[in-house]
Design a protein that fits this description.
7 strands; binds magnesium ion; globular; 8 helices; alpha/beta; binds guanosine-5'-triphosphate; 199 residues; seven-stranded mixed sheet; Rossmann fold; single chain
Length: 199
């Protein structure tokens, strides 16, 4: 029987739906960013006294919480920031010299780095002691973490007559580098743009 030719005796096929359920789950569909994207998390890590907390305070102006890291008495600050128009969660970690942790603070920072699904790890270093501090950069890279190197305290380095070759660092390390002075708010704009770009 040729159903499509016999119009009286045949049931006409059920009308085609105008849309399919599969269209709702089509990965190519453009979903508004406020539904599809989670807020990225970035962590500020580095040796003690390099300016992590000062940078954290500059970035996070709205909502900040300070709490003990689970099972420890070590405080970790988290804050919401609007970086170059992007909402970002920023974590200020306790000072650490190495991923091979010795102190409780270092253990907390290491656990935080390895357990949290961070979108960007901002390694803050003191421009005056950059050679010594790059050791941690290599460890972070070996741990396959997405690293941005923030060479801070450039104001003090310049007073000492030190010049940081940002481009050379970038090409040698293969990661983004920014030079800045959190205290003088120099290079903050470029820093924010780079963070927003890499998250
Ligand atoms: N001259 C100068 N001083 C800075 C700069 N950034 C931070 N400082 C100063 O360095 C000191 C240490 O800064 P913090 O932000 O507390 O350092 P930290 O990395 O959080 O230190 P820990 O919490 O101990 O790991 C403070 O007195 C800051 O004002 C900078 O770019 N230039
Ligand atoms: Mg601090």
């Amino acid at each position: 029987m040729s159903c499509h030719t016999c119009r009286q005796t045949c049931h006409s096929p059920s009308p085609k739906p105008k849309w399919k359920w599969s269209q709702l789950f089509n990965s190519n569909r453009v979903i508004p960013t406020y539904i599809s994207k989670k807020i990225p998390t970035v962590a500020l890590v580095g040796s003690p006294n390099v300016g992590k907390s000062l940078l954290f305070n500059i970035l996070t102006s709205t909502y900040v919480t300070v709490s003990n890291y689970p099972g420890t008495t070590v405080e970790v600050s988290r804050g919401e920031a609007l970086i170059a128009g992007r909402a970002v969660t920023v974590v200020d970690t306790p000072g650490m010299y190495s991923l091979l942790s010795i102190t409780e603070e270092e253990r907390v920072s290491r656990d935080l780095l390895l357990r949290e699904n961070l979108d960007l790890v901002i390694h803050v270093v003191d421009a005056k002691n950059i050679g010594r501090m790059l050791n941690l950069t290599f460890q972070l890279l070996e741990a396959h973490l997405p690293v941005l190197l923030a060479v801070n305290m450039i104001d003090e380095a310049e007073k000492w007559g030190l010049v940081v070759d940002k481009k050379k660092l970038e090409t040698t390390l293969g990661i983004p580098v920014v030079t800045m002075s959190a205290a003088l708010k120099l290079g903050i704009h470029e820093f924010q743009n780079k963070v927003a770009h890499y998250v």
